[in-house]
Amino acid sequence: MTDPSLRLPAEWEPQAAVLIAWPHADTDWAERLAAVETTYVALAAAVTRFQPLIVVVADGELQAHVETLLRNTKVDLARIRFVELPYDDTWLRDSGPITLKAGDASFQLTDFRFTGWGGKFGAEQDDALIAGLVDAGVFGHAAHKRIDWALEGGGIESDGAGTVLTTWRCLVQRHPEQSREEMSAILRDSLHAARVLWLDYGYLEGDDTDAHIDTLARFAPGERIVFQACDDISDPHHDELQRMGVELAALRTVDGRPYELYPLPWAKPILDKSGLDEGRRLAASYANYLIVNGAVLVPAYDDPADDEAARIIGTAHPGREIVQVQCRPLIWQNGSLHCITMQLPAGLA
């Protein structure tokens, strides 16, 4: 039985801030740090136009460096709060808090176990990040609930009204011993959801999250779903994403209606051009966008499809400014714009 006083808000609901962690030389970004910092600076500039930004930094030296970068690009530092904590990496969509909100404007920081995407990478510091932010007073008097079950924020989508969307490919990798029914029950209970919708198809080459939903399909206001499509029949993703599109068309709202679907264009293959993984395809998903107050920040990849993707996302999120953020540096580490951010509901911070 779910608690009706708590729910998982939709991303398009009012926000207090966006939370990020800044890359540094002791993270996996070290080899291309200068390049990825250009994306982080652009992200900070975009977010602070609309709302506050909380930046986790490893130490005071990094904070001073970040402040210099942002000051040089005329980012409003008055809208930025720095918090000094240790972290393994910067994918705060997955190590940050999944915040439930009650009708009385109280909050629960739901702190699932973070395993480095099924043990692929070291994650001890990232798993302790939420507790560190709580201890630093970032979230005021919000309740902090630890749940000893592996789940990443990028693995779930919420419509804010009790429906959660996720992928079987990801969660069966995290919990191979559990059935879909068992996992659905855990998700409903821990996220105070009424129902869980599953996708069996959909993946992106270069994605090491095992098909996080935020790279594939996103809820939008008005019972819409924006999703990454592929119309290139020669592309190895074509069959899988076509099947995912069929699955999405078969989903129904609580009232039994089909969702209004917004397929996104497909970027041309982007390959890693250096290092041991030269020739590796990178996961350029337009579905990995970030909603903020009054705007949607949309990934761009220097591809002819960038503008059309931005237009479609804008149509699905009417009344919001569309801001493109260059994300080609991010996909070298297998994620994009949404993956490095976590929104905080209004009133939380």
From TrEMBL:
InterPro entries: Peptidyl-Arg-deiminase_porph. The keyword Hydrolase applies. Signal peptide: none annotated. Gene3D superfamilies: L-arginine/glycine Amidinotransferase, Chain A. The keyword Hydrolase applies. Keywords: Hydrolase. This is Agmatine deiminase. It comes from Rhodanobacter panaciterrae.
